[in-house]
Amino acid sequence: MSSSKRHLIRRNNTWYARLAIPKDVKFKFQNRREFIKSLRTSDLSTAIVRANLLIADWKNNISIARGNPSAIETLAIKLKNDNSQSSERINDDTGMSDKDYYAEEVADNLDEENQKRFYDLYTGRVGTPFSYYVEEFVKFSYINPKTAQDARQTVKLFESKCLTLETVSQKKVIEWVETERRSRGTIVKAKGYLNKYWKYLQDREIVKRDVYPFINIELPKSLKSKVSHLPYSDDEVNLIIQQIKSKNDSQLLALSEIAMYTGARISEICSLVKTDIIDVEGVQCFNIRVSKTKSGIRQVPIHPSIKSLVQKLVGESVDDFLISGIKTKGDYKRRADVVGKRFGRIVRNDCNLPKSKVFHSFRNTVATKLESAGIPENIAADIIGHDKDTMTYGLYSGGTSIKQRYEAIKKISYHL
Question: Tell me, what DSSP letter sits at residue 169?
């Protein structure tokens, strides 16, 4: 049976939804074996749509019965913010609404501690910590681990200015912005994370849909501008390479030399595996499949100066990665963080280069060298992985040929 029909049964030409109740919580549902309800339709497609909503609700009830704090708090907040007819119909004898009765039924199935937490949130006696849903938000919203961590930290930092979801307002956001001393670019990015988190909560009816505290906030002119990344001079590249060699850091040396002749991001290079070295139209290329942007997914010809290096890396790899043996305590996607920190220490401490010179500066360097060699911008964009803004090249073109890119790549040279 297909997964979409797994919770469906048919009786007398009518579809029913059903879900088994786990043994550990049966006693909280009058020892019933399953939830079952008519979907009032003989049409399978309609039944699947209606069943999905019921199944989600039943699973949430099972989670609440098990005392899952997240499920309990989510339901309490949703009920508190519910402005439907069920919250407006009042029983004249008791003064309770249909919503109040439902909340009471939920609370009766909870132990004393969770029952108090449920009522605290449902009645508004206490607030929900601003960062309470950050982990599920990050898991839902981001794949790149570094971006996920930036979003997580931003949400938790904002919590120091605004403790609960219930106290968030544009006034609070303005107060936070006015006390910031970080760069304008950093605050713009932080505001983007916070707005996305808020929309995530709105979509799940955890916060009100008609409140938008993170938009239309003007940033003060006192915020400092972000330091722009500048290209390396050949002398600076030579200094960096010599310092890396003096530390016998073969991983960092390979990473830097590949970046020098491709302009690839550090995360793109660290994600390359042996099978990403491919032949396209007779030209050996890096097949970059992992990138932060759609235009970053590309094939970059291998420069003659690093062909022997690439062959050596493929032959010596012990873990399928092109740059092998990078140890990380976290997910393999954090490999770039490990070597990125080593590179940063060399550039800053050993080479004494300014903050405008970072690993990303190799992208600026390659772009500068391609421009100096007279390479058309559309070819350079396809090599480096930039969007093309023009209608003709950006929207309609299928991209430049590998041979065009290879001829351009060969123009890159360094006086080392």
Answer: -
Q: Render pLDDT for 50-82 as a digit per residue (tens, 0 to 9).
A: 787 678 778 777 876 775 656 676 777 777 766
Q: For residue 222, give the DSSP letter.
A: T
CB-CB contact of 237 with 222 (8 Å): no
Query: What does 204-222 look like in DSSP terms, one character per residue?
Result: TTSS-TT--TTSSPPPPTT
Phi, psi of 313 (to 5 degrees): -65, -40
Alpha carbon 140 to its chain centroid, in Å, reads 8
The one-letter amino acid at 38: S
Domain locations along the chain: 3-123, 134-203, 234-409
A 10 A CB-CB count for 350 gives: 15
What length does the chain have?
416
Distance CA 112, CA 118 (A): 10
Q: Who's near 49: CB < 8 A, 6+ residues apart?
A: none
Q: What is d(CA 365, CA 241) in angstroms, rounded to the nearest whole number?
A: 15
Cα separation, 292 vs 142, whole angstroms: 11
* Cβ atoms < 10 Å from Cβ of 185: 14
Handedness of CA 15, 19, 20, 26 (dihedral sign): negative
pLDDT at site 83: 65
Q: What is the dihedral of CA 328, 331, 335, 337, to 10 degrees?
A: -90
pTM value > 0.70: no
The torsion angle over the Cα atoms of residues 340, 341, 347 and 351, rounded to 10 degrees, is -140
Residue 287's closest CA among 310, 254, 260?
310
CATH superfamily of 234-409: Intergrase catalytic core (1.10.443.10)
Determine which of 133-147, 219-233, 308-322 has the lowest per-residue pLDDT on average: 219-233
Residue 29 has pLDDT above 60, yes or no: yes
